Amino acid sequence: MKLRANIPLISATLLFALPLFASATTNTFQVSGWVPYWNGATSTADAIAHMSELTQVDPFVYSMQDDGSIKDLGPMNLPPWSTLVATAQADHVLVIPTVMWSNGSAEKTILTNTTSRIALEESIAGLVTANGYDGIEIDFEGKPASLQNYFSTFLMGLKQRLGTKKILACDIEARTPLGDAYAGLPVPPGAGDYANNYTAINKYCDQVRLMTYDQQNVDMALNAAAASSSQLYAPVADPQWVSDVVRLAEQQISPAKIEIGIPTYGYEYDVTAYANNDYNYDIMWTFDPGYATQIEQQYNVQPTRNAADELELTYIPSTATGTAPISSGANNALIAAAAASQYATQLNSHMDFRLLDWPDATSATNKADLAKSLGVHGIAIFKIDGGEDPNIWSAIQGLAGTSTLVAAKPTGGSVDVTLAPLTSNLRIGSTGTQVLILQKILNSDASTEVATSGPGSPGSETATFGLATKAAVENFQLKYRVATPSNPSFGSVGPATRAKLNAVLATI
């Protein structure tokens, strides 16, 4: 889709075509959070302290046993869990506990048998009724694709037993577009076979939680883009990946039902650097942000925000006497990657170091902005247990329950939307309308296009500033000589670059 060159410009404003949606509704923006059983006292205290910032709590307490019975890991009828429920109900916050299951073999045994499946539906519905919950959340993971029809039938039966007054929420694994998951490689047979039928989930589930975290290496297109620019790349959830996952889901699931999962934890990797900026990442463990603070203090390193809008730092584990980290300072992770690769190249060897990557309050805020720009119903925080970045609560303060425009599924056609000059500084991790405008301007010239096909390409612009947008901005800056690689603002939109972008906009 091309910009309309024949539309007269008024104050550097032009009109462009976007997909036409059947209708859009104004809903209250939902902010929910999983409250895990493994830190019961801390988790419930944390959720209670921040109840005013939530519209829904999801006690992560019920676990399926292999025989089809439900185990209460709370227990929910005793403090502190009963206190959490009472507080939420008094504050008019929805209480929707999670029933989790990750044994694919046991799931198959129970769901493929009509008698045991119906018994499970009745057991879960009875649990909701007996405890006065507002609904139930189903988190059945690890299912084989052969269970798709059986799982859909289970959801249908459970929804019928819950009735219209109770909410059926469904946790769904993030589905990466196949073209990105296998970028540059043939898509293997069966890669598009899934256990979750999105059409059925849209029909029977009132809420759909997309588990948009634990990205790691599932998006080969983004991995390749990072590798080509010699960047370390091991994100928990890159906004560009999240955007792609959501847009794929929106093709079959109503945006009014979708919530974006937001992680509050990070990963530590043992990284091996080989020659020519080749890095191998081995996950060691997950951690809460407080652990990163300890590493910062112990090794005198500072984190930097990376291309995935998350914080990262690097260090070399040392003895008590101390070994200097690979580097220190504001850009330590970038310097570390380059130094390790240079060492490996010169000596035809390899070098090991540690990488910490984690989202913070800024990451969460930007994800919430992304959720609004994508027209979905809200965000779901995983996890609330006192270990998250404490600044997250002030960052999202007042967000819960605000009015937001929730898009409906596209029906074809187009509608004109005003595109105004850029007014904000933009960088990796930025989201919203300003990024969409930026991509439109960049895509008006083939030499600065964000992408030639898929998300970010002409007619498919997104509201997320990711690696592809950064590369396009760099091409723009080089073309118009407004910044060079030695400039700290290279790849981001500051006053000088923005002025030139707006000048180009006025000529389109």
Sum up the structure in keywords.
508 residues, alpha/beta, eleven-stranded mixed β-sheet, five-stranded antiparallel β-sheet, 16 helices, globular
Assign the structural class, choosing from mainly alpha, mainly beta, alpha/beta, alpha+beta, or little secondary structure. Answer: alpha/beta
Catalogue the unreliable spans. Answer: 1-23, 319-335, 409-417
DSSP strand count: 20
Q: Which strand order do you get reading across the main beta sheet?
A: 6-5-8-9-10-11-12-18-3-4-7
- What's the shape? globular
* Mean pLDDT across every amino acid position: 85
Rg, rounded, reads 24 Å
- Amino-to-carboxy terminus distance: 14 Å
User: What is the chains' assembly state?
Assistant: single chain
Q: Percent of residues in beta strands?
A: 15-25%
Helix coverage percent: 25-40%
With helices defined by DSSP (H or I, 4 residues minimum), what is the helix count? Answer: 16
Q: Outline the biggest β-sheet.
A: 11 strands, mixed
List the helices and strands and how they pair.
Layout (H helix, E strand, L loop, with lengths): L13 E8 L2 E5 L1 E7 L3 H10 L6 E5 L1 E3 L5 E3 L8 H10 L3 E2 L2 E4 L2 H8 L2 H18 L3 E6 L7 H15 L4 E7 L4 H4 L16 H7 L2 E5 L8 H9 L10 H11 L8 E6 L2 E9 L3 E10 L1 H11 L4 E2 L5 E5 L16 H16 L3 E8 L2 H13 L4 E5 L9 H4 L7 E5 L2 E10 L13 H10 L24 H14 L14 H11 L3
Parallel strand pairs: 3-4, 3-18, 4-7, 5-8, 8-9, 9-10, 10-11, 11-12, 12-18
Antiparallel strand pairs: 1-20, 2-19, 5-6, 13-14, 13-17, 15-16, 16-17
